[in-house]
Design brief:
There is one protein chain. The protein starts with 9 loop residues before the first helix and ends in a 6-residue tail after the last strand. 32% of the residues lie in helices and 29% in strands. The strands form four sheets. Strands 7-8-9 form a three-stranded antiparallel beta sheet. By secondary structure, the protein is α+β, with helices and mostly antiparallel strands.
Length: 173
């Protein structure tokens, strides 16, 4: 088993691509953007797959074995745009599509761009809530109305949203 790097950062990502990345930047807690110079999309896909493979693996954390994986979204200049913010947004859309499909990499396509910026922001906040304990369980007893005793319990999830308070699942699933 491999031991995980102490910290995955820009240096680890640059090293995984053997210096091929022109720029590497952390854009979120566990999200990075890389600028690769490639003449065509296929070369970029090969480099992205190499990078994602370097992040996956099975790690021994004491007595626990943990499997990790990574997902990426790929955009290519100029066919996916030229504005840096738009390219990052589109890469983010492709990355979430990859995560949703359970595949390591998605290349941006316009048919993936079905959600609004608000949807992406909500998804990002929900993922943060999952990592930081922002989802809470409420237990509701099930009572036999004829005989009176508690016959079971239902677990009800709520999102303790920092602005809107407790949200029902219909508002975030």
């Amino acid at each position: 088993l491999m031991r995980p790097p102490r910290q995955v950062g820009a240096q680890h990502l640059s090293a995984a691509l053997a210096g091929e990345a022109e720029r590497v930047a952390r854009v979120g807690g566990d999200e990075f953007a890389l600028l690769l110079r490639r003449s065509d999309l296929t070369e970029g896909e090969r480099a992205a797959h190499r990078l994602l493979a370097s992040l996956g693996g099975q790690y021994d954390l004491g007595e626990v074995s943990v499997r990790s994986s990574a997902a990426g979204g790929l955009v290519h200049l100029p066919e996916h745009g030229s504005d840096p913010e738009e390219l990052l947004r589109r890469a983010d859309i492709a990355m979430y599509a990859a995560k949703g499909a359970g595949v390591p990499l998605e290349v941006y396509r316009t048919d993936l761009d079905t959600g609004s910026v608000a949807d992406l922001e909500r998804l990002d906040r929900l993922q943060t809530a999952l990592r930081t304990g922002g989802l809470v369980l409420h237990y509701q007893p099930k009572i036999d109305l004829v005989t009176g005793p508690v016959t079971g319990v239902e677990a009800l999830v709520r999102w303790d949203h920092p602005v809107h308070g407790l949200l029902y699942p219909a508002s975030f699933l």
